[in-house]
Amino acid sequence: MDNPIVSTGAGVATIVIASALGLLTVFVLWHRVPLAVAYALTTVWGIGVAVGGLLLQDDVGPASWVVAVAVLGVIGPVHARLVFGPPGRADVVAAGPAAA
User: Fold this and answer.
1) What is the pLDDT of residue 43?
2) How far is CA 65 from CA 7, 38, 39, 54, 96, in A?
3) Fewer beta carbons within 10 Å, N or C terminal of the chain?
4) Alpha carbons 35 and 30: distance in angstroms, whole number
5) What confidence score (pLDDT) does residue 100 get?
6) Residue 98's pLDDT is what?
7) What is the reported pLDDT for 93?
8) 10 Å Cβ neighbour count for 56?
9) For residue range 64-99, what is the model confidence (pLDDT) as tens digits?
10) What DSSP string describes 73-88?
């Protein structure tokens, strides 16, 4: 392991912490926090998973850092929105088609 940026412990810890934040966000906070906070948290844990994964790899170039962080920063909120519905407090979320 001659690449000084490779850190198995830091990479695994970053992935575990980011995943825990993600689980907390979508299962506990998703409908309790404002819209902007929910999306910010999902962006943070998406980026955290990307950084943790890159810290585990031996030969990572600058482009990998840019692409992985950008893609997972976008995919995190999109995935959470598609799976768990719109974030935000229930009194602020728009009514569905049945209410119209």
Assistant:
1) 95
2) 15, 24, 21, 7, 39
3) C
4) 9
5) 52
6) 60
7) 53
8) 17
9) 999 999 999 999 999 999 999 888 776 655 566 665
10) HHHHHHHHHHHH---S
> Which residue do the tokens 């009514």 mark?
95
**DSSP characters over 42-72:** HHHHHHHHHHHHHHH-SS--HHHHHHHHHHH
Cβ contacts of residue 67 below 8 Å, gap of 6+? none
Place of tokens 């950008």: 70
Q: Give 51-55 contacts, CB < 8 A, sequence gap 24+.
A: 51/14, 51/18, 52/10, 52/11, 52/12, 52/13, 52/14, 52/15, 52/16, 52/18, 53/11, 53/15, 54/11, 55/5, 55/6, 55/7, 55/8, 55/10, 55/11, 55/14
Residue 100, both tokens = 């119209």
